[in-house]
């Protein structure tokens, strides 16, 4: 699973420019599908969790870091998802990037992205996980800024890299602290040692893990990089949002749940972060005009749901939603890529419309993904989101019940903005669209994703319909026991969530239906609430005011006043003084014997005077 994408990435990077384009494309796709094939073989032969030690990476005194891989239901399910979704994205990329000449760099980075994510997922030790963690961050930086000649794209890549470094620093501190406390960095060993430490220490470690997840998974308050990450190619956006990068934070917390879960405070912090982020992302998506930014904020919101599930201790529910979300979010982004390509790279949803007739395959596939995102009853997204809501409600207590109601409001808002997007892009009067090369193949990639998204609920059906597949698979995973409530209660909760989703659909229909686009555009643009949501609650302006501007002002003082005004000026004055002294002394080197004799006599006189002064 690991070696194939690694070898593909290295080969494309070193020799890709000298090989025919078709060969590079075939090699890049084949290595990822080969990795998926290995994951299938592992799944077919899976019997119990297994650790495989490949070699010794580092050894110094007590610190032993082996290259060990760990396969259990959690890592296996993510490997299958990453391999399949990334394989489809690679095929889609062949046609989407057909006009780009820098194909070798693109496919090399795409392959390395898959390798880094699989390394993160399969790692048995935290240093190896950290290697994959930094790998996905580095690859995302290079892919977001892939078209680096455009300043906005380069800035977006740097913004993602710098913002996620905050979380990465917290993770590094957590690793050092864990080794100092327990003398090991093995994940399986650490997960069984939580009882050895006071609750306050476990809470602090849990908060450090949460900060790490905030950065990588774009959770409040470190979420500002993800909307700008849309600057990269659309297939890259699909990979980052669906199968790699942003799911890494959720996986980290789910993997370390047996350790972190012993602290109720840390779990509550994770749940609150997830619920607030879900609401934040959904409200911001309400006002976006850029198609990809709508999907970006929806990713922030859906990852928030997963974090909420982890905070409620429901690893199965969080993983269930992670898998289904990977299918429908990849579907939505790749569908958006088809729309953007057909619309001459136009991304403003108010300048679209009528594409239901001109792009029927894209429309029906996109509609399937939108139904899952909105949580329309009987879709995969409905069942996966309901499993999280059930886990939060079953947790009990004022805090978790409040988070449940906030999650319900978010579900209503999600359905509304989702079908706002669908109506504005595909409804109304027809806009000019054209068939691009490879569009039919790109649309064909959407079909399996649409089927998996719609029927993804079969992965873990509610308890009253029988024991779900993921429920059985995760039964032995720490924290993986499926949440089961009374049958009547679960049906009631599902009915409430389904009713809210349908209410959001109806509201979007009445507001954004046929013939309403222009009026809504003018009304929204004049609304202060619209501007507030469009600007992402002004978080960027807040960070600019409290972080960027003070930093720039301090940098200006240090540059102009300290560096140039004091240090450089002092050195310049010292150099000038030395030069003047040398020039003055140089005047005595005239070549005249009379002046040298006079200087010699003056020197002797001074010496005699000095000696006389000493002896008197």
Automatic annotation (TrEMBL):
The organism's place on the tree of life at top rank? Bacteria
Keywords on record: Membrane, Transmembrane, Transmembrane helix
Residues in domain NADH:quinone oxidoreductase/Mrp antiporter transmembrane?
Answer: 123-403
Task: Tell me what topology the record assigns in the membrane.
Answer: Multi-pass membrane protein
Say if the entry is tagged with keyword Transmembrane. Answer: yes
Any Pfam family? Proton_antipo_M
Regions that span the bilayer: 74-96, 103-122, 128-148, 169-189, 195-215, 236-254, 266-287, 294-316, 322-342, 363-383, 403-423, 444-465, 491-510, 595-615
Residue ranges annotated for the NADH-Ubiquinone oxidoreductase (complex I) chain 5 N-terminal domain, each copy included: 57-107
| Cell compartments where the protein resides | Endomembrane system; Membrane
What this protein is called in its record is Oxidoreductase
**In which organism is this protein found?**
Geoanaerobacter pelophilus
Organism lineage reads as: Bacteria, Pseudomonadati, Thermodesulfobacteriota, Desulfuromonadia, Geobacterales
């Amino acid at each position: 699973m690991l070696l194939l994408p690694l070898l593909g990435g290295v080969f494309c990077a070193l020799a890709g420019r000298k090989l025919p384009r078709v060969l590079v494309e075939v090699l890049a796709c084949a290595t990822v599908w080969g990795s998926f094939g290995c994951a299938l073989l592992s799944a077919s032969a899976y019997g119990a969790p297994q650790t495989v030690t490949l070699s010794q990476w580092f050894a110094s005194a007590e610190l032993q870091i082996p290259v060990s891989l760990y396969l259990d239901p959690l890592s296996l399910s993510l490997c299958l998802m990453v391999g399949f979704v990334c394989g489809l994205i690679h095929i889609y990329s062949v046609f989407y990037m057909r006009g780009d000449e820098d194909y070798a760099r693109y496919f090399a980075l795409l392959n390395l992205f898959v390798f880094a994510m699989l390394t993160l997922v399969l790692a048995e030790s935290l240093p190896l996980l950290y290697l994959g963690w930094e790998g996905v961050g580095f690859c995302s930086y290079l892919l977001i800024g892939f078209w680096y000649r455009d300043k906005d794209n380069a800035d977006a890549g740097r913004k993602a890299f710098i913002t996620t470094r905050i979380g990465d620093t917290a993770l590094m501190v957590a690793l050092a602290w864990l080794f100092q406390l327990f003398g090991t960095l093995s994940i399986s060993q650490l997960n069984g040692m939580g009882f050895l430490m006071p609750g306050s220490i476990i809470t602090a470690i849990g908060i450090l893990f949460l900060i790490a997840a905030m950065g990588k998974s774009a959770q409040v308050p470190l979420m500002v990089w993800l909307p700008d990450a849309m600057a990269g190619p659309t297939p890259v956006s699909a990979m980052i949002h669906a199968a790699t990068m942003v799911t890494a934070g959720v996986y980290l917390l789910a993997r370390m749940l047996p350790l972190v879960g012993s602290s109720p405070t840390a779990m509550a912090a994770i749940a609150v972060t997830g619920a607030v982020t879900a609401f934040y992302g959904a409200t911001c998506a309400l006002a976006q005009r850029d198609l990809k930014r709508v999907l970006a904020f929806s990713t922030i919101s859906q990852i928030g749901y997963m974090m909420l599930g982890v905070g409620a201790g429901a690893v199965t529910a969080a993983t269930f939603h992670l898998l289904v979300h990977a299918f429908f979010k990849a579907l939505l982004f790749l569908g958006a890529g088809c729309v953007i390509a057909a619309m001459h790279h136009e991304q403003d949803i108010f300048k679209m419309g009528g594409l239901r007739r001109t792009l029927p395959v894209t429309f029906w596939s996109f509609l399937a993904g939108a139904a899952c995102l909105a949580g329309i009853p009987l879709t995969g997204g409905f069942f996966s989101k309901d499993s999280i809501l059930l886990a939060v409600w079953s947790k009990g207590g004022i805090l978790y019940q409040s988070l449940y109601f906030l999650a319900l409001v978010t579900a209503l808002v999600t359905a509304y903005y989702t079908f706002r997007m669908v109506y504005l892009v595909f409804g109304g009067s027809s806009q000019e669209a054209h068939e691009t090369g490879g569009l039919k193949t790109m649309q064909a990639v959407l079909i399996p994703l649409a089927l998996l998204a719609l029927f993804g609920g079969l992965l873990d059906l509610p308890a009253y319909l029988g024991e779900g597949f993921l429920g059985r698979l995760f039964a032995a995973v720490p924290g993986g026991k499926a949440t089961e409530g009374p049958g009547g209660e679960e049906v009631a909760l599902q009915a409430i969530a389904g009713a809210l989703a349908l209410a959001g659909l109806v509201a979007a229909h009445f507001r954004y239906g046929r013939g309403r686009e222009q009026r809504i555009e003018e009304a929204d643009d004049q609304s202060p609430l619209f501007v507030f949501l469009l600007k992402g609650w002004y978080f960027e302006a807040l960070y600019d005011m409290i972080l960027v501007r003070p930093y720039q002002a301090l940098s200006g003082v240090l540059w102009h006043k300290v560096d140039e005004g004091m240090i450089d000026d002092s050195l310049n004055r010292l150099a000038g003084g030395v030069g003047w002294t040398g020039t003055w002394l140089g005047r005595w080197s005239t070549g005249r014997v009379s002046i040298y004799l006079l200087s010699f006599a003056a020197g002797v006189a001074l010496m005699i005077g000095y000696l006389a002064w000493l002896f008197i």
